[in-house]
Amino acid sequence: MKLFDVYPLYEVTPVRAKDVYVYDDKGTEYLDLYGGHAVISIGHGHPRYLERLTQQMHQIGFYSNAIQNPLQQELADAIGEHSCCHDYQLFLCSSGAEANENALKLASFHTGKKRVIAFEHAFHGRTSAAVAATDNATIVAPLNAQQAVTFLPFNDEEALEKELKKGDVCAVIFEGIQGVGGLDEPSESFVYALERLCNTYNSCLIADEVQAGFGRTGTFFSYQQYNIQPHIVTMAKGMGNGFPIGGILVHPSIEAKYGLLGTTFGGNHLACVASLAVLEVLKTDNLQAHAKALGDYFIEEAKKIPGVRQVKGRGLMLGMEFDFEVGALRKELIYTHSIFTGGSSNKKLLRILPPLTVQQKQLDFFLQELKTALKTIAA
Ligand SMILES: Cc1ncc(COP(=O)(O)O)c(C=O)c1O
Which residues line ligand 1 (CB under 6 A)? Predict the structure, then answer.
């Protein structure tokens, strides 16, 4: 049987990985500055992660959400402690799109409304309402296009209020730092306006932290550089360091009811333990502060490289913008310099999303190799 061919692939076959390095079937070592789409948070194969997952596998790997699973409460407490969102409620699922799907559905249940406001260049996933709230017409099927979504630019408070005033908006969904879209951020005053206007017009504010969350940007959630309380926060990617897990944090003003949300796989024993290991290592290895310090360092150093127009992002969620499309540069980096980087829907932007365990010397190595790669592709 053939694979359904939806992914353009690089000619690399990883067979093993350790911390920030990935090894292919020929034994070549690659520096992983992409973490498989920002998923690897505490490094590939972290000993504590392996230990907890292995132990749990020997106990019980899965049972459905019809039984008691104390690991879910343990995880809720640990997320509460790390995020300081103590009074929020946790619902667990298995991916970023599923987290956003549940967040949008819950907002609609809660408000009794159905239109969504999302932002230009947003990416929220590939399923029903999540893809409809994604600003990329090529991945929205006619079925998904039935959802009522209005896209607005960041920072246009007047346009936002005009739409919210119509009274039919269940949710405003935003990324504190856009991931796939290319690392753009709303202004501080606009973030406060989002909270204020959603409260005024009885709409839910959803912070999509699927890519930026779990310490990557130097705060636990990227929106937490501001003092706002979204109604719902969505999470996935770095939450499980490669084990599929997602979740939403729900503000105490939104009440749960049996059957309101549900899933078979969400919050299973292995997923909970994977995320607990991530949180434990984030704390013991002080990775959030490390991400912030290294991000600040990288931004300063990357700006000095000839040809770099702008360095965007925070912590270890970073983008380097050039005045040319970076496809050839990424190929040169991977095939000649053995370095994984990422692209974005902004074709001129190179994304850097390493495991949070990356060291300064590895970033220095990358910047050095980048200079050579830039010369090669210019020649
Ligand atoms: C901000 C954001 N939200 C949602 C998603 C969708 O997550 P998943 O691919 O796990 O469904 C992504 C994936 O890149 C993302 O970056």
Answer: 37, 95-97, 100, 123-125, 175, 179-180, 208, 210-211, 236
Gap from CA of 37 to ligand 1 centroid (Å): 9
59 alpha carbon – ligand 1 mean position (Å)? 31
- What pLDDT, on the 0 to 100 scale, is given for residue 52? 98
CATH match of 47-284 with 3.40.50.300: no
Where in the chain are all domains bearing CATH 3.40.640.10? Answer: 47-284
What is the torsional sign of CA 323, 370, 7, 147? negative
Which pLDDT belongs to residue 128?
Answer: 96
- The mean per-residue pLDDT over the stretch 359-373 comes to 98
Place of tokens 């897990």: 245
Q: 187-210: string of b/e by CB count within 10 Å (b at 16+)?
A: eeebbebbbebbeebebbbbbbbb
Homologous superfamily of 14-46+286-378 in CATH? Aspartate Aminotransferase, domain 1 (3.90.1150.10)
Task: Give the whole-angstrom CA distance, residue 95 versus residue 260.
Answer: 18
199: Cβ contacts below 8 Å, ≥ 6 apart: none
